Amino acid sequence: MRSADGAHTGLMPELPEVDALVEFLRPRLIGDFVTRADIAELSLLKTVDPSIDALVGLEITEVDRRGRALIIGFDGLNLVCRFARMGWLTWHDTAPSSPIRMGKGPLGMRVSLASGAAFDLIEPGSKKNAAVSLVRDPTEVPALASLGPDALSLTVDGLAEALSESTSRIKTVLEDQRIIAGLGNAYTDEILHAARLSPFAAAKTVDPQTLHNAITEVLDTARTNLIGLPPGKFKTAEKRGFSVHGRTGETCPVCGETIAEVSFADKSLQYCPGCQTGGKKLSDRRMDRLLK
């Protein structure tokens, strides 16, 4: 779904994408005032007090990110937007004149502004997992209260401690928001490729400095590629920058090996056997069953 300045990406929004969205929104939102706040999908709103109508007349004072969540701040209130897998924000320079239809289409919420602009929170598809909470303190949202250190501020020592205490695979650790906030399936694929690590490697065996370098390199590059673009161009720029994620069957840009995949019930990971697993393919039980 597209508008002049926004689009749904088709990938779960992760740290670089939400950071770029924050940079896009700050000059457009801060200092503006809310004139209307309409809910089109009741399941989107997770709080009842304060009422969403409490936003009307308030000035937007801050736009920020915590983990993968977008936070729009007002005087004493915060609108916390968690996009889940399919949710996103669409920007309108001029608020649409068409009436909002409850429970119809991807629209979940529309916020109209005194400047005449508006933004929508959308979630295509029948599964509605995105969430909006209006709270006085963002930590009132349990998912934010439990966040670990942000992937961009995580120190080598902090990462070393997290790895040494884990009994999980490194891919699982990187995606656990309680351990490291901001990463998801796509960028963990990219980080592990940059670090030349198998996604199935035991976390406690991983060198913290090598992994930290890869996290910094991948996220800094992604943010540089996205910041300054309108949200409608994030998807193209993001995919163009991926080395392995979403590129099953293509050639690895580093070693020339064919990029492989492991499928799960609700997602898949991509990796390069040449760079990450010593030339060996990881077991893909789902695919093995299909081929029997």
Automatic annotation (TrEMBL):
Cofactor: Zn(2+)
Origin superkingdom: Bacteria
EC number: 3.2.2.23, 4.2.99.18
Record's keyword terms, sorted: DNA damage, DNA repair, DNA-binding, Glycosidase, Hydrolase, Lyase, Metal-binding, Multifunctional enzyme, Zinc, Zinc-finger
Residue ranges occupied by any Formamidopyrimidine-DNA glycosylase catalytic domain in the UniProt entry: 13-142
Gene Ontology biological process terms, A to Z: base-excision repair
Molecular function terms from GO: 8-oxo-7,8-dihydroguanine DNA N-glycosylase activity; class I DNA-(apurinic or apyrimidinic site) endonuclease activity; damaged DNA binding; zinc ion binding
Catalytically driven reaction(s): Hydrolysis of DNA containing ring-opened 7-methylguanine residues, releasing 2,6-diamino-4-hydroxy-5-(N-methyl)formamidopyrimidine
Domain FPG-type: 243-277
SMART domains in the cross-refs: Fapy_DNA_glyco, H2TH
Family label: Belongs to the FPG family.
Name of the protein in its database record: Formamidopyrimidine-DNA glycosylase
UniProt organism field: Brevibacterium linens
